[in-house]
Write a structure and sequence with these properties.
10 strands, single chain, alpha+beta, 6-stranded mixed beta sheet, globular, 18% strand, 34% helix
Length: 327
């Protein structure tokens, strides 16, 4: 009888150990020795058309109409991140977002900022882990979330931690005033960030920002006469003015410099890229890619553990001046 008990105990122990090895949290590949940077993407309800000021205006209005009833939606889409470090078991989950939706409405509909709304500084904040975990649960169950999980090495994770700590300290010292905006690049000294620039900066710091990801980026040349507010004194730009314009400024060498270059990473474009790549995953410039899921949310896992981390400062001087950034 004692021998039989031992055999039964041994069987239970083997089953327990095997189940522990095989069971992985949903959406995990099982690579546990690495750190992870996960970028979460929530698309706008209507895809933005960046082909002209007119097309962008139409996209904005359609999104406003779709968001009138559902107040919890993101008008421009959203991006946020989660960092898990292998060195100290630290988990950081956060993202940048504006804190006052009415501020944007006033600038657009009352203060006649025109397309200055794309680059202007707004009140913003770093989101909390508790807030974002609820968003992941909510949007992943609906299939309205996409994500990219990068497996990273310890050096990359530590550099990302350093960047986040320094950036957060800077925001804590200046408050939430004018720290959120599309023209900011958080790796430039003293600047805030938009939601997508914030998450992309982590890839940039670790040398993971591939040329293939250029498709996520939108580059436009905003005509100066469509920029209002404090950036172009005396120039009031209504939405009707934006609607009438059928093309961006001419940036050819022979054209006068009567425009402001602007670029942004569009979370909706990023989300669509993920969902397309999920159907037929291919390597990204030599990095292994596999499809993964969280509930109904489709995602990709990209192995970047062997990518060398650039030996450079986490912050740098702004390379080109911007009408939206005070020196």
């Amino acid at each position: 009888m004692s021998k039989m008990k031992k055999q039964i105990s041994l069987i239970f122990l083997m089953v327990f150990l095997l189940s522990g090895v095989a069971a992985q949290p949903e959406g995990k590949s099982g690579a546990s020795s690495s750190g992870e940077l996960t970028i979460y993407l929530i698309p706008s309800r209507v895809t933005y058309n960046w082909s002209s000021p007119h097309a962008l205006y139409c996209s904005l209005i359609r999104n406003y109409v779709r968001n009138i009833i559902k107040k919890d939606c993101y008008l421009l889409g959203h991006a946020f991140m989660q960092l898990e470090s292998p060195a100290d078991s630290l988990v950081i989950m956060t993202g940048m977002r504006s804190t006052c939706r009415d501020q944007q409405k006033q600038m657009l509909f009352e203060d006649n900022y025109g397309l200055a709304i794309l680059g202007t500084g707004l009140e913003g904040k770093l989101q909390t882990r508790e807030e974002l975990e609820c968003q992941i649960e909510k949007y992943s169950k609906k299939g309205k979330l996409a994500f990219i999980r990068f497996l990273i090495n310890e050096k990359a994770a530590l550099k990302m931690e350093e960047f986040y700590s320094s950036y957060k300290s800077r925001l804590d010292s200046i408050g939430n005033s004018s720290c959120y905006g599309g023209a900011f690049w958080p790796r430039y000294y003293g600047e805030g960030s938009g939601c997508s620039a914030f998450v992309i900066s982590f890839l940039d710091i670790a040398g993971i920002l591939r040329e293939e990801f250029d498709i996520w980026r939108v580059d436009i040349d905003i005509p100066l006469d469509l920029i209002g507010g404090p950036y172009n004194p005396g120039q009031e730009v209504t939405l009707k003015d934006v609607k009438k314009r059928r093309q961006w400024a001419d940036n050819s060498a022979l054209a006068p410099m009567n425009y402001e270059p602007f670029w942004i990473f569009d979370p909706t474009i990023m989300s669509k890229w993920v969902k397309e790549a999920y159907k037929s995953p291919e390597s990204v410039e030599g990095l292994t890619v596999i499809p993964v899921k969280i509930n109904k949310a489709k995602g990709l896992e990209i192995d970047a553990r062997n990518v060398p981390v650039p030996d450079e400062s986490i912050f740098m001087q702004r390379k080109e001046p911007s009408i939206f950034i005070k020196e």
